[in-house]
Design goal:
The structure is a single chain. The protein has 3 helices and 9 strands, in the order βαβαβββαββββ. The strands form 2 sheets. The protein has a 6-stranded mixed β-sheet with strand order 4-3-2-5-6-7, with helices on both faces. A 3-stranded antiparallel β-sheet has the order 1-9-8. The protein has 174 residues and is α/β, with parallel strands linked by helices. α1 packs across α2. It binds inosinic acid and magnesium ion.
């Protein structure tokens, strides 16, 4: 068995600049307001931790964990959450924070769930927008980087639970 190869994609500095820019844009869009950021576990934990520290507006934070669901449809209550939202989001402006958007199926279900809880608005912030396998045309309001394809690890992103701790982002070639 050969060792997996890690090809650098985003350096620490590039990630830092991207997160700063996202924080500045979001703070400006929601100026005079406040926002509830909901991170999608587990992949978003590092990105979310850095992003909230770049905001100059009041922010409440929570996390959600969508557990694996058979055929990935949100209808007929097939989505289950192993961690739901604890805080009250009725009439709040919510931003869902994702590490990477791939097919878009996870997010579509999460948006539906957050709306059903009475949020005033729901926007999406993703560190990486991966386009090749997109199945649902969702609007990513705040996207850090776009890539065409590849499997990325590091900065929260995993392959079979490994590599989340890497401070940079790599393309994993098995
Ligand atoms: P989607 O429902 O296909 O958009 O799934 C998105 C989720 O799949 C992300 O939140 C990640 O947890 C995982 N994922 C998709 N692409 C990658 C990748 O390149 N590296 C690591 N995780 C990924
Ligand atoms: Mg994820």
């Amino acid at each position: 068995m050969s060792m997996p190869e890690l090809i650098p994609v985003l350096s620490k500095n590039e990630i830092k600049k991207t997160v700063q820019n996202l924080g500045t844009t979001i703070s400006s869009d929601y100026r005079n307001g406040q926002v509830v950021m909901i991170g999608v576990l587990k992949g978003a934990f590092i990105f979310m931790a850095d992003l909230v520290r770049q905001l100059s507006i009041p922010v409440q934070t929570d996390f959600i964990c969508a557990s694996s669901y058979g055929n990935k449809t949100c209808s007929s209550g097939k989505v289950s959450f192993s961690k739901k939202i604890d805080i009250d989001i009725v009439d709040k402006d919510v931003i869902l924070v994702e590490d990477i958007v791939d097919t878009g199926l996870t997010l579509v279900c999460l948006i539906e769930y957050v709306k059903s809880l009475g949020a005033k608005s729901v926007k999406i912030c993703a560190l990486i927008d991966k386009q090749e396998r997109r199945e649902i045309d969702i609007e990513i309001d705040y996207a850090g980087h776009s890539i065409e394809k590849g499997f990325l690890v590091g900065y929260g992103l995993d392959y079979a639970e490994d590599y989340r701790n890497l401070p940079e982002i790599f393309n994993l070639k098995l």
